[in-house]
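Record 1 of the preview.
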Amino acid sequence: MIDTAVSIASCPTAEELLRDELSVGDAQISTYAPILRHLLASDEHSVFSDEIIARVRGMTNDMAHQLLDEISALPGQDGDRSHDPVAVAALISRFVGNEPLLAHCHSLALEWHLTQSLQGRLAVDPVLSPLLQALVASTETPTATQAMALLAAQARFAQHQRRMQLPLTELPGDLLHAVLVALRAYGGEDPARAEICAQAESAIRARFDEGRSRLGLISRLISAMGGGATAALSVSHAGAAIFLSALSMACGQDRDLTILATSEGQFARLALSLRAAGLKPQGVEEQFAALYPDVTLPPNFDQLGADRAAAMLAGADPYAGY
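->
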């Protein structure tokens, strides 16, 4: 592979080439969090694009403001949403120090970038993909209802990404917990402030329902598709959001890591993920044609079985350097 418009005939097997490229790609992933922390703390944006860094910075800033808004809205508080920049910065610093939370913000920014790319190159609507449109029109009421709920959630996601926002209710449960731990730390040892932070935390937890989040809705919809979920493994048919969740579920990898697999320098991980998900070599080629038309698969890729691809992914640890 995995070179633009060049086939590497000298590689003896696809597995050896993919293993080497997976190792290089994982080494790159292990540097992402430290790089993001550096870029978010400075104005040097040479490694990642300005758009991605700005979006990650915007999401962390938005989450900090949501926590402080929650405090301001408590009985007895002033309701003022013009928050102390020092308080905002203190919360952001804790968010940036949490690598899974930072990686999630990064992955959402990359997902939106991919969504925009598919719209520009393949005319895939960022909200209503062909697959989602078909599910909305389903004669099965539960399917159509779930699809409509996802349609609304995806529309909100698009709006939030354009505004560089990330609602707390859209976080996975473990990451919401991390955000609330940061809120507790902000409360510190001052009894009065700790108490209002605890009240704000309780209010946020009471409203949280992971199953109603965008990612929760996508997972439920894919699970309900049963054997038909194979259709979700076509990025041009399913759209980025459903495709990424379906690929993550099918290959047994974390969704945020699956999103990273679609970025530059991670072509081996993407090829292995698609093969491990059960796509035949021709299907893998079709997805590369949609995502990276200038990239070629390695010689003898068709000899790499799905089980072997899954084993190679399971044996890799891109976060070993964290």
